[in-house]
Write a structure and sequence with these properties.
Blueprint: E1 2-4, E2 7-13, E3 24-25, H1 37-49, E4 55-68, E5 71-83, E6 95-102, H2 114-132
Parallel strand pairs: 1-5
Antiparallel strand pairs: 1-2, 2-3, 2-6, 4-5
Length: 139
């Protein structure tokens, strides 16, 4: 997930998407064969949003179930905390809308998938830990 200050970026999928049409989600993407996962993150975020991420902290991965056209597929989802100062998003054809949502207002998006809520929660926890940790040179 991508944070800008106290807001997280949500993208609304286009109506013609086979998987989760019209659903709100964080930027996602598919890893190319042989591509390091960190490069996938940078590439997919740029392709879907036009944003260059400044920080990418791995938060873990898990398997998630995706249903499309009546077929169930298991996907490995890698969650990262990414941050940007940029506010202008340039959407790909996969999405039709975006919002920078304050964390306190995520309840206004009741159709967020459980795995998206888990990823955002992991990102929030990682940011909280990082912000409360003393600087490395503080002794």
């Amino acid at each position: 997930m991508i944070f800008r200050g106290d807001c997280v970026l949500l993208l609304r999928r286009s109506s013609d998407q086979r998987i989760a049409p019209d659903a709100w989600q964080c930027p996602v993407g598919k890893q190319d064969p042989g591509e390091p996962i960190e490069e996938t993150l940078v590439r997919e975020v740029y392709e879907e949003t036009g944003l260059a991420v400044q920080t990418a902290i791995p938060l873990g991965d898990h398997t998630t179930e995706i249903v499309a056209d009546g077929e169930t597929t298991m996907w490995r989802q890698h969650d990262f905390l990414a941050e940007t100062d940029a506010a202008d998003v340039v959407l790909s054809d996969e999405h039709r809308d975006f919002r920078w949502v304050p964390l306190a207002r995520l309840g206004e998006f009741p159709d967020l998938a459980p795995q998206v809520r888990v990823a955002i929660s992991r990102g929030r926890e990682a940011r909280d830990v990082r912000e409360t940790r003393p600087p490395d040179d503080a002794a």
